[in-house]
Amino acid sequence: MYFGRLATDDTYTVDEVSEMLDSLESVVRAEIESELIYTARTNVLLVNQILRQAQTHDVDVAVDVFKLEDR
Questions:
Q1: Residue 1 in 3-state DSSP?
Q2: Which of 12, 46, 52, 56 could pair with 16 as two cysteines, CB 3.0-4.6 Å apart?
Q3: Residues 19, 2: contact at Cβ < 8 Å?
Q4: Measured between alpha carbons, how far is 42 from 19 in angstroms, rounded to an integer?
Q5: Does pTM top 0.70 for this prediction?
Q6: What gap in Å lies between CA 67 and CA 1, rounded to an integer?
């Protein structure tokens, strides 16, 4: 990775810039994937808790699946 050189070098070759961008892309993709997985799991747990509480209090819950699919 060339990120440490950004502060000291004034010029870069096309290959160096390409390598820096490829490296950055990999880091960003991995971070976004990790955050999306975390968010999905959190949402599943939240919906599960809400449905369990509704069931405990004898509340009928209706889900409009077609609206979910449209989004």
A1: coil
A2: 12
A3: yes
A4: 35
A5: no
A6: 45
